[in-house]
Amino acid sequence: MYVNQIMKTHSFCFLILLLLISCTTAKDHAELELGCDSLGEILSSEIENVSRGYSYRYMIYLPPCYDATANPGYPVIYLVPGLGSGANAWFNVGINDIADQLILSGEVSPFIIVGTEATSNDPSGADIIKDLIPHVESNFNALEGRSYQAIAGASLGGSAAYRLTFQNPDEFASVGMFGSGLIIGEDEQVATWLASTKKANQPRVFFNSGEQDPLMVERAQAMVEILEDAGIPYELVIGEGDHSYVYWASNMYQYFKWVAEEW
Protein backbone atom coordinates (compact mmCIF):
# COMPACT_ATOMS: atom_id res chain seq x y z
CA MET A 1 0.00 0.00 0.00
CA TYR A 2 1.41 3.36 -0.99
CA VAL A 3 -1.01 5.64 0.85
CA ASN A 4 0.56 7.90 3.47
CA GLN A 5 -1.08 10.47 5.72
CA ILE A 6 0.42 13.86 6.53
CA MET A 7 3.28 13.59 8.97
CA LYS A 8 5.73 16.07 10.39
CA THR A 9 9.14 15.72 8.78
CA HIS A 10 12.14 16.34 10.99
CA SER A 11 15.62 16.95 9.66
CA PHE A 12 18.43 15.60 11.80
CA CYS A 13 22.01 14.32 11.51
CA PHE A 14 22.55 16.92 8.79
CA LEU A 15 26.31 17.12 9.28
CA ILE A 16 26.63 13.37 8.89
CA LEU A 17 24.59 13.53 5.69
CA LEU A 18 26.85 16.24 4.30
CA LEU A 19 29.90 14.12 5.01
CA LEU A 20 28.37 11.16 3.22
CA ILE A 21 27.51 13.30 0.22
CA SER A 22 31.01 14.77 0.09
CA CYS A 23 32.49 11.28 -0.07
CA THR A 24 30.50 10.45 -3.22
CA THR A 25 32.72 10.43 -6.29
CA ALA A 26 29.97 10.43 -8.92
CA LYS A 27 27.63 13.43 -9.29
CA ASP A 28 24.16 13.01 -10.77
CA HIS A 29 23.26 16.72 -10.75
CA ALA A 30 24.58 20.12 -9.74
CA GLU A 31 25.58 20.46 -6.10
CA LEU A 32 25.23 23.54 -3.95
CA GLU A 33 28.30 25.75 -3.93
CA LEU A 34 30.21 25.48 -0.66
CA GLY A 35 29.33 28.41 1.56
CA CYS A 36 26.43 29.54 -0.63
CA ASP A 37 23.99 31.68 1.34
CA SER A 38 22.18 33.58 -1.42
CA LEU A 39 18.49 33.04 -2.16
CA GLY A 40 17.08 31.71 -5.38
CA GLU A 41 16.02 34.07 -8.17
CA ILE A 42 12.65 34.29 -9.94
CA LEU A 43 12.60 35.48 -13.56
CA SER A 44 9.60 36.31 -15.73
CA SER A 45 9.98 35.71 -19.46
CA GLU A 46 8.23 34.60 -22.61
CA ILE A 47 8.86 32.50 -25.69
CA GLU A 48 8.11 34.56 -28.77
CA ASN A 49 8.24 31.95 -31.51
CA VAL A 50 5.91 29.13 -30.57
CA SER A 51 3.88 26.69 -32.61
CA ARG A 52 0.53 28.22 -31.61
CA GLY A 53 1.44 31.53 -33.26
CA TYR A 54 1.64 33.89 -30.25
CA SER A 55 4.01 34.18 -27.30
CA TYR A 56 4.08 31.85 -24.31
CA ARG A 57 4.66 33.44 -20.89
CA TYR A 58 6.36 31.60 -18.05
CA MET A 59 8.23 32.20 -14.80
CA ILE A 60 11.33 30.36 -13.65
CA TYR A 61 12.99 29.90 -10.27
CA LEU A 62 16.76 29.46 -10.36
CA PRO A 63 18.10 27.95 -7.12
CA PRO A 64 20.60 29.55 -4.71
CA CYS A 65 24.02 30.04 -6.34
CA TYR A 66 22.68 28.82 -9.68
CA ASP A 67 25.59 28.02 -12.01
CA ALA A 68 24.83 28.17 -15.72
CA THR A 69 27.96 26.14 -16.46
CA ALA A 70 27.70 23.44 -13.77
CA ASN A 71 28.10 19.97 -15.23
CA PRO A 72 25.80 18.19 -14.82
CA GLY A 73 22.95 20.66 -14.38
CA TYR A 74 19.74 20.88 -12.40
CA PRO A 75 16.53 18.81 -12.18
CA VAL A 76 13.37 20.69 -13.20
CA ILE A 77 9.85 20.75 -11.78
CA TYR A 78 7.14 22.23 -14.02
CA LEU A 79 4.19 23.68 -12.07
CA VAL A 80 0.89 24.19 -13.90
CA PRO A 81 -1.61 26.72 -12.48
CA GLY A 82 -5.35 26.21 -12.27
CA LEU A 83 -8.18 27.79 -14.25
CA GLY A 84 -7.90 31.57 -14.40
CA SER A 85 -4.40 31.64 -12.88
CA GLY A 86 -1.11 32.58 -14.49
CA ALA A 87 2.51 31.50 -14.39
CA ASN A 88 3.02 33.47 -11.15
CA ALA A 89 0.27 31.66 -9.19
CA TRP A 90 2.54 29.25 -7.35
CA PHE A 91 5.21 31.85 -6.62
CA ASN A 92 2.61 34.27 -5.19
CA VAL A 93 2.18 31.90 -2.24
CA GLY A 94 5.92 31.60 -1.59
CA ILE A 95 6.90 28.16 -2.86
CA ASN A 96 10.28 29.64 -3.82
CA ASP A 97 10.90 30.35 -0.12
CA ILE A 98 10.21 26.69 0.65
CA ALA A 99 12.62 25.62 -2.10
CA ASP A 100 15.29 27.98 -0.76
CA GLN A 101 14.90 26.54 2.74
CA LEU A 102 15.24 22.94 1.57
CA ILE A 103 18.20 23.64 -0.70
CA LEU A 104 20.18 25.84 1.68
CA SER A 105 19.66 23.37 4.53
CA GLY A 106 20.99 20.57 2.34
CA GLU A 107 17.78 18.53 2.57
CA VAL A 108 17.48 18.40 -1.23
CA SER A 109 19.82 19.10 -4.13
CA PRO A 110 19.36 22.39 -6.02
CA PHE A 111 16.58 22.33 -8.61
CA ILE A 112 14.79 24.62 -11.06
CA ILE A 113 11.06 25.40 -10.94
CA VAL A 114 9.13 26.55 -14.02
CA GLY A 115 5.70 28.14 -13.65
CA THR A 116 3.72 27.47 -16.83
CA GLU A 117 0.70 29.18 -18.33
CA ALA A 118 -2.74 27.83 -17.45
CA THR A 119 -3.95 25.02 -19.69
CA SER A 120 -7.56 26.22 -20.03
CA ASN A 121 -7.23 26.31 -23.83
CA ASP A 122 -4.69 23.49 -23.94
CA PRO A 123 -6.09 20.70 -21.72
CA SER A 124 -3.47 18.18 -22.82
CA GLY A 125 -0.58 20.59 -22.24
CA ALA A 126 0.74 20.35 -25.80
CA ASP A 127 2.44 23.76 -25.55
CA ILE A 128 4.46 22.55 -22.58
CA ILE A 129 5.81 19.57 -24.50
CA LYS A 130 6.32 21.25 -27.88
CA ASP A 131 7.62 24.65 -26.84
CA LEU A 132 8.27 25.22 -23.15
CA ILE A 133 10.44 22.22 -22.28
CA PRO A 134 12.73 22.56 -25.33
CA HIS A 135 13.08 26.28 -24.58
CA VAL A 136 14.02 25.70 -20.94
CA GLU A 137 16.54 23.01 -21.87
CA SER A 138 18.12 25.31 -24.47
CA ASN A 139 18.33 28.44 -22.30
CA PHE A 140 18.98 27.17 -18.79
CA ASN A 141 21.23 24.55 -17.22
CA ALA A 142 18.47 21.96 -16.99
CA LEU A 143 19.14 18.25 -16.84
CA GLU A 144 17.42 16.38 -19.63
CA GLY A 145 15.70 13.02 -19.28
CA ARG A 146 12.67 11.79 -17.36
CA SER A 147 14.60 10.99 -14.18
CA TYR A 148 15.17 14.70 -13.59
CA GLN A 149 11.91 16.07 -14.90
CA ALA A 150 8.67 16.30 -12.90
CA ILE A 151 5.37 18.07 -13.40
CA ALA A 152 2.60 19.05 -10.99
CA GLY A 153 -0.57 21.07 -11.26
CA ALA A 154 -3.27 22.79 -9.25
CA SER A 155 -6.94 22.02 -9.81
CA LEU A 156 -7.50 21.94 -13.59
CA GLY A 157 -3.73 22.16 -13.97
CA GLY A 158 -3.45 18.86 -12.15
CA SER A 159 -5.57 17.23 -14.86
CA ALA A 160 -3.24 18.55 -17.54
CA ALA A 161 -0.26 17.33 -15.50
CA TYR A 162 -1.49 13.73 -15.29
CA ARG A 163 -2.46 13.70 -18.96
CA LEU A 164 1.01 14.91 -19.91
CA THR A 165 2.71 12.36 -17.68
CA PHE A 166 0.60 9.33 -18.57
CA GLN A 167 0.78 10.09 -22.31
CA ASN A 168 4.49 10.96 -22.25
CA PRO A 169 6.11 8.52 -19.81
CA ASP A 170 9.50 9.15 -21.45
CA GLU A 171 9.31 12.84 -20.40
CA PHE A 172 8.29 12.80 -16.74
CA ALA A 173 9.24 10.56 -13.82
CA SER A 174 6.44 11.83 -11.59
CA VAL A 175 3.25 13.86 -11.46
CA GLY A 176 1.76 15.88 -8.62
CA MET A 177 -1.94 16.72 -8.35
CA PHE A 178 -3.01 19.44 -5.91
CA GLY A 179 -6.75 19.82 -5.44
CA SER A 180 -7.18 17.54 -8.41
CA GLY A 181 -7.79 13.96 -9.45
CA LEU A 182 -9.38 11.80 -12.10
CA ILE A 183 -11.58 13.71 -14.54
CA ILE A 184 -15.04 12.15 -14.66
CA GLY A 185 -15.33 9.96 -17.75
CA GLU A 186 -11.58 9.40 -18.22
CA ASP A 187 -11.38 6.15 -16.27
CA GLU A 188 -10.87 3.87 -19.26
CA GLN A 189 -8.53 6.29 -21.01
CA VAL A 190 -6.25 6.60 -17.98
CA ALA A 191 -6.24 2.83 -17.47
CA THR A 192 -5.28 2.40 -21.14
CA TRP A 193 -2.43 4.91 -20.89
CA LEU A 194 -1.02 3.19 -17.82
CA ALA A 195 -1.41 -0.30 -19.25
CA SER A 196 0.67 0.69 -22.28
CA THR A 197 3.50 2.14 -20.17
CA LYS A 198 6.65 0.07 -19.86
CA LYS A 199 7.43 -0.91 -16.28
CA ALA A 200 10.73 1.00 -16.37
CA ASN A 201 8.81 4.18 -17.23
CA GLN A 202 6.01 3.90 -14.69
CA PRO A 203 5.55 7.30 -13.03
CA ARG A 204 5.16 8.05 -9.35
CA VAL A 205 2.08 10.05 -8.34
CA PHE A 206 1.57 12.57 -5.51
CA PHE A 207 -1.86 13.84 -4.41
CA ASN A 208 -2.74 16.66 -2.05
CA SER A 209 -6.35 17.66 -1.36
CA GLY A 210 -8.05 19.33 1.57
CA GLU A 211 -10.84 17.92 3.70
CA GLN A 212 -12.88 21.04 2.91
CA ASP A 213 -12.57 20.20 -0.80
CA PRO A 214 -14.61 16.96 -0.80
CA LEU A 215 -15.15 16.66 -4.56
CA MET A 216 -11.41 16.73 -5.21
CA VAL A 217 -10.75 14.27 -2.39
CA GLU A 218 -13.25 11.95 -4.05
CA ARG A 219 -11.64 12.45 -7.47
CA ALA A 220 -8.18 11.77 -6.03
CA GLN A 221 -9.43 8.54 -4.48
CA ALA A 222 -11.00 7.55 -7.81
CA MET A 223 -7.57 7.94 -9.43
CA VAL A 224 -5.99 5.92 -6.63
CA GLU A 225 -8.17 2.92 -7.52
CA ILE A 226 -6.85 2.97 -11.09
CA LEU A 227 -3.26 3.41 -9.93
CA GLU A 228 -3.53 0.45 -7.57
CA ASP A 229 -4.91 -1.74 -10.36
CA ALA A 230 -1.96 -0.73 -12.54
CA GLY A 231 0.63 -1.12 -9.76
CA ILE A 232 1.64 2.56 -9.86
CA PRO A 233 3.26 3.95 -6.67
CA TYR A 234 1.58 6.98 -5.14
CA GLU A 235 1.40 9.15 -2.05
CA LEU A 236 -1.93 10.59 -0.92
CA VAL A 237 -1.93 13.57 1.44
CA ILE A 238 -5.31 14.75 2.77
CA GLY A 239 -5.30 17.42 5.44
CA GLU A 240 -7.17 20.32 6.97
CA GLY A 241 -7.56 22.67 4.02
CA ASP A 242 -9.65 23.90 1.12
CA HIS A 243 -9.31 24.45 -2.62
CA SER A 244 -6.62 27.11 -2.48
CA TYR A 245 -2.98 27.76 -3.32
CA VAL A 246 -2.36 28.72 0.31
CA TYR A 247 -3.31 25.22 1.46
CA TRP A 248 -1.46 23.46 -1.35
CA ALA A 249 1.66 25.54 -0.70
CA SER A 250 1.64 24.37 2.91
CA ASN A 251 2.31 20.87 1.57
CA MET A 252 5.02 21.79 -0.93
CA TYR A 253 7.76 21.05 1.60
CA GLN A 254 6.62 17.43 1.63
CA TYR A 255 6.12 17.37 -2.14
CA PHE A 256 9.58 18.75 -2.97
CA LYS A 257 11.24 16.17 -0.72
CA TRP A 258 9.13 13.43 -2.28
CA VAL A 259 10.17 14.44 -5.80
CA ALA A 260 13.84 14.68 -4.84
CA GLU A 261 13.92 11.09 -3.57
CA GLU A 262 14.56 9.92 -7.15
CA TRP A 263 17.29 12.46 -8.05
The count of domains is 1
Q: What oligomeric assembly is this protein in? A: single chain
Mean pLDDT: 89
**The CATH fourth-level homologous superfamily:** Alpha/Beta hydrolase fold, catalytic domain
Biggest sheet: strand arrangement:
1-2-4-3-5-6-7-8
Any overview of this molecule?
With 263 residues, the protein is α/β, with parallel strands linked by helices. It has a single domain (35-260), classed as Alpha/Beta hydrolase fold, catalytic domain (Rossmann fold), CATH 3.40.50. The protein is built from eight helices and eight strands; from the N terminus they run αβββαβαβαβαβαβαα. It has helices at 14-22, 95-104, 126-139, 156-167, 187-195, 214-230, 245-249, 252-260, and strands spanning 41-47, 56-62, 76-80, 112-115, 149-154, 174-178, 204-210, 234-239. Strands 1-2-4-3-5-6-7-8 form an eight-stranded mixed β-sheet, sandwiched between helices. The radius of gyration is 18 Å and the shape is globular. The model is unreliable at 1-27 (pLDDT under 50).
